[in-house]
Each structure stands twice: as C-alpha cells, then as structure tokens.
Amino acid sequence: MRDHIASKDFREGFVEMLPACIGLLPFGLVCGVGAAAAGANWLAALGMSAIIFSGAAQILAAQLVAADAPFAVIVLTCFVLGLRFLMYSAAMAPYLRPLPERMQKVLAFLLTDQAFAAAVRRFNASDDHHGAGMHFFGCGAALYLVWQVSCMVGFLAGNLIPSAWSLEFAVPLCFIALLAPLFRDAPSVAAAVTAGIAVLAMSHLPMRLNLIVAGVLGIVVGTLADLARERWKAR
Amino acid sequence: MEGALKLWAVILAVGALNYLSRLSFIALFARRSMPPLLARALKYVPAAMLTALILPMIVDFKGAAADFATPRVAAALIAAAVAFATRSTLKTLGAGMAALWLLQWVRG
Fold first, then answer.
1. Would you tell me which residues 37-96 of chain B have a C-beta closer than 8 angstroms to some C-beta of chain A?
2. Which residues pair with B67 in a beta bridge?
3. What are A77-128's pLDDT values in tens digits?
4. Do B48 and A54 touch (CB under 8 A)?
5. How far, rounded to the nearest angstrom, does the alpha carbon of residue A128 sit from its chain's CA centroid?
6. A95, A123 Cβ separation under 8 angstroms
7. Contact B52/A53, CB-based, under 8 Å?
8. What whole-number distance in Å separates Cα of residue A164 and Cα of residue A169?
C-alpha cells in the first residue's frame, strides 16, 4: 500500500483533485449541518460521512430521518439515488481489471460522482491501466479526506455560519456541475426534463416519494429516447 | 425505532447498499457483461436522479404553485451555463453563489 501512495500517479491524482475538493467544502459543511439536524451525535455524523461517503445520499438520509420517514423508505430512496454507482462501476470495471483484487475493492469504495468524472478522463487518455488506477486512488483519497473534515466541521460549527450566506445553495450547485455537461446528449435532456417536471408536479407526495417516482420516470423516458434515436439513425 | 438506533441502522444499510452498487461490476459481476437494456437505462440515472434531487432545492413553492421568478432559479441557470461550458465544480460554485448573493442584494 505504501508503494501505491508513493507513486507519481497517486500524487498527481491527489493534487489534481484538490480544486474540486475546495468546491465540495461547502457541500460537506451542509452535510454536517444536516447530520446535526437529524439528531446525530459526533460519532454518527462521522459514520455518515465515513461509511456512506456520498453527499447526495447523506443529505437525503439526514432529511428523511429528520422528517421521521420509515426506515424502509429511507433506505429505498437512497438506493435508487445510488443506482448511478452501478453505471460508474460498469464503466470503470474494464480499466480496473488488471489491478489486484484488494486494490479493486478499495477503489470501488472511493467511487463517487467527482472521482468518476476525473477518472474517466484519465482512463480515456492513457493506456497505462496501473498508472490510471493509482491516479484514481489519489483522486479518491483526496476526496475522502477532505470530505470527512468538511462534514465534521459542518457538524461542529455549522450553526456559526450566517444563514444570509445561503450556504445550503452550494448543494444543488455541486450537482449542477455534474448535471449540466450531460445536456450535450438529447436522451439525457429528455430524462432530466421528465424527472424535473414530475418531481415538481408530485411534490405533494409524502416522504419525498416524488423523488423515486420522478427518477424512475426520467430513466424510462431517457431509455426510450435512446432507443428511438438508435432506430431513427438506422433508417 | 428509537432515534439513535434508527440513524445507525440507516447509516449501515445505506452504506452497505452504496458499497455493493459501487463494487457491483468491478468485482461481484466482473465475469458477467451487463444486459444491454440495463446498460442503456443506467446511462440516464444521473440525469434523471440528479435533476429530481436538486430541483426541489431550487424552486420555491407558494401553496400548491411553483415560483420560478426567484434569485435561486436565476442563479441556478447561470451556474448551469457555466457548468455546461467549463465542466468545473469550482467555477460553477463560484458563479452560482456570486449570482445568488448579487440577486438577493439587488432584491434587498
């Protein structure tokens, strides 16, 4: 493991990720504040960021716990939200196959939206799979460390941040940074527009069930649009 | 379920499911290729789920009707344009927060 961390690719990934980490600081703070609002003690707050390690799932779980939603609804909603990891996992798998199994299991744990976006660029640009794997390890390690610290600071000191700063707006902004570049692809636009209309139209549903329903509708419409595009191109 | 216990149950269950999803095609089904329809559908999970997640954080509700003429909506659109052009988290965040603060200040 020490050899991995000493490698040049690891350091490059670690350093390359730092600007994105700065962007995620406010997001981490908001997650820490959310954990406090859900009634977590410091250990549970650390558990959320260290074990779940997904800002979207942490925020959503914290909101649903605070709203006293049933356990099954919370877990199901977070699972549907986490389905995107299946796609990231499948996209990463061919690149990680040459690496040792233990390394694969560590890298899988560090798979996040931001690390995936950085890794795919590197894997596409380089034939050195081992080096690209270490680069990903560096990206993931930087994100993991910064994430734990920012969530903890948010948990401990969140109430010192003036509400006039609207820091919670950093959360949608971090996701917009991932979402907007997808709009180059027509079926993705169809999926997003469908999910967007549906989530607002069904906002009266209890326990954030509108999120799951809208997400699934968006996925179905995106898939159908993709199939239609393929058929149209084949004509 | 009692508060602290329920929170830990959520942390462990969501953490485990997240890790299994992350591990899925890297290790669990490494020898199996993904069914083509599933592969096609999963491509649209980020666009659909992220939109469904963030829109309620941006759009206000006045009773039953959504209010789109707010500083948050305008700031989100500006941030989306920056994200589309730059793909940078930091620039998106900077532009979005600056736009929000400016618009809130203008509105008084």
1. 37, 39-59, 61, 64, 66, 72, 75-76, 79-81, 83-84, 87-90, 92-93, 96
2. B60
3. 999 889 889 988 988 888 888 888 999 999 999 999 888 888 877 877 777 8
4. no
5. 26
6. yes
7. no
8. 11
pLDDT at B88: 87
Query: Across the interface, which of B4, B43, B101 has its CB nearest the CB of A87?
Result: B43
pLDDT at B59: 94
Q: Does residue B52 share a domain with residue B30?
A: no
Q: How far is B101 from chain A (nearest CA, A)?
A: 8
Domain match, B53 and B38 both: no
Residue span of the structural domain in which B80 resides: 44-108
Backbone φ and ψ for A58, nearest 5 degrees, come out as -65, -45
Report in angstroms the alpha-carbon separations of A184 from A60, A149, A160, A181.
28, 34, 40, 6
Are B84 and A198 a contacting pair at CB < 8 A? no
Which residue in the set B9, B18, B87 is minimally distant from A57, CB to CB? B18
Residues B48, B101 within the same domain: yes
B6 contact A CB<8A: yes
Give yes or no for B108 touching A (CB within 8 A). no
> For residue range B52-98, what is the model confidence (pLDDT) as tens digits?
999 999 998 766 677 888 999 999 999 999 999 998 889 999 999 99
Q: Nearest residue on chain B to A91, judged by CA atoms?
A: B25
For B94, which residue in chain A has the nearest alpha carbon? A23
The C-alpha torsion from B50 through A25 and A153 to A55, rounded to 10°, is 20
Q: How many domains does chain B fold into?
A: 2
Q: Are B48 and B36 contained in the same domain? A: no
Per-domain residue ranges for chain A? 2-168, 185-229
Give the nearest partner residue to B72 out of A41, A84, A169, using CB atoms: A169
- Contact of A213 with A198, CB cutoff 8 Å: yes
B11 and B26 in one domain? Answer: yes
**Same structural domain for residues B74 and B85?**
yes
ipTM over 0.85: yes
B49 in the same domain as B6:
no
Whether residue B49 is found in the same domain as residue B101: yes
In whole angstroms, what is the distance from residue A80 CA to residue A114 CA? 19
